[in-house]
Design a protein that fits this description.
By secondary structure, the protein is mainly α. Helices cover about 45% and strands about 10% of the residues. It is globular and about 45 Å long. A three-stranded antiparallel beta sheet has the order 1-2-3. α1 packs antiparallel against α2, α1 packs across α3 and α2 runs antiparallel to α3.
Length: about 120
């Protein structure tokens, strides 16, 4: 198994956490846990490596929800009520993309979210 895959996945999700000011100790810890869990998962199903990046992002997103946060929040819909982005395709790969849950419009590839203007810089 290529461990560079897991380093790249960690970097992508961490970049998105930083971009949206959500790289808290708790969510970075959730990221580390998700990477390790998906490493085990991919060892059991090597053909599933193409899904790891999106699944890790979904795992961290679930951890944020469990902590009472919504991450990442859509910034593309202007004045619409706050709503989240989700990873598409649903299984997380290949080539996962953040998509607005309201409009269905792709916003950014995983690891490429734009920073929140004036948001926290955690």
């Amino acid at each position: 198994m290529d461990h560079r895959l897991f380093l790249a996945v960690r970097a992508q999700v961490l970049a998105d956490l930083h971009a949206r000011g959500r790289a808290s100790v708790d969510l970075v810890s959730a990221l580390e846990d998700a990477v390790e869990a998906r490493r085990w998962w991919a060892e059991q199903w090597p053909e599933g490596e193409v899904y790891v990046a999106g699944l890790v992002a979904q795992d961290v997103q679930d951890a944020a929800v469990d902590a009472g946060e919504r991450w990442p929040v859509c910034r593309s819909c202007g004045e619409a009520p706050e709503h989240a982005l989700h990873i598409h395709p649903d299984l997380g790969g290949p080539d996962p993309v953040w998509v607005c849950e309201e409009s269905g419009v792709p916003v950014a590839g995983l690891g490429r979210l734009s920073p929140d203007p004036g948001g926290p810089t955690t």
